[in-house]
Write a structure and sequence with these properties.
alpha/beta, Rossmann fold, two-stranded parallel sheet, 7 helices
């Protein structure tokens, strides 16, 4: 158990789902978001923080042993807000970690770092990034800066390229990309407590029948997903047909590959 664990993005849908699940991993869970958060429980602290505010980020990180970084914009959209939250904010997080001696970060990266690979391909962490939009570019930057801070300063990071973390799969694409909350919780636990992770990239998908990602380079985490999408397959495959040229069925990033450009 950690003494104090930071969870950024705690007001988002995924943050709300993980908040009770991370309680067993630290004596104190420090919760942060730019949006309002529910009142803290006895084992929790709440600190509102804009990721783009460097001084606020230094105060947020102070006293924390590790961070689960979900914070930032999680959808495709115009570049300026993504720049502030996902790129500038990522730099602020790692600088604060360096200053305060935090040694481990679990970074919520995304499958959209490699979204322009086709669903017919199977890739691993050595495949060159092929981001599918501004959001994917920001997550690719996050993976690069975390690599830099490991090589220069020894801050270890596990970059989880989250597929589709939802209570259940919502469409045909998610038959391959879905990640259950239970499997994600276990992956975070492995990422926080496995010794000597260095800089690891792991693709976050449950044990689904169809797989686009090979995680042989993350085997040292010891993570074995338990859930899969078979209970929903018949229902999703019986849904109205999607056009053969729809990006939903062509690219690993689905329809993110066809969004934009956006007015700024």
């Amino acid at each position: 158990m950690l003494d104090r664990l930071l969870l950024t993005g705690a007001a988002g849908a995924l943050g709300r789902a993980l908040r009770p699940r991370l309680a067993a991993m630290a004596r104190t869970l420090r919760l942060s978001d730019i949006a309002a958060l529910d009142a803290p429980a006895a084992h929790e602290e709440v600190m509102c923080c804009d990721l783009g505010d460097r001084d606020a980020m230094e105060r947020l990180v102070a006293g924390c042993d590790a961070a689960v970084h979900l914070g930032g914009i999680s959808v495709e959209g115009p570049f300026p807000p993504i720049l502030n939250a996902n790129i500038v904010g990522m730099h602020h997080l790692y600088e604060a970690a360096r200053i305060h001696g935090m040694r481990r970060i679990v970074f919520a990266s995304s499958n959209h770092v490699v979204g322009f690979y086709r669903q017919s391909e199977v890739i691993d962490a050595t495949a060159p990034p092929r981001p599918d939009g501004n959001y994917g570019v920001s997550k690719a930057f996050g993976e690069l800066i975390s690599r830099f801070y490991f090589d220069r300063y020894g801050i270890e990071t596990v970059c989880i390229r989250i597929g589709s973390a939802q209570p259940h799969p919502l469409d045909r694409r998610m038959l391959a990309s879905w990640l259950s909350y239970d499997d994600l919780t276990e992956l975070i636990r492995c990422s926080l407590f496995t010794p000597n992770v260095g800089h690891t990239i792991v693709h976050g998908a449950s044990a689904n029948r169809d797989r686009w990602w090979n995680d042989r380079h993350a085997a040292h985490l010891g993570w074995t997903p338990k859930d899969n999408t078979e209970p929903w397959r018949a229902q999703l495959e019986a849904a109205p047909a999607v056009a053969a040229d729809d990006p939903l069925l062509i690219y690993q990033g689905g329809r993110f590959t066809a969004q934009g450009p956006f007015p700024e």
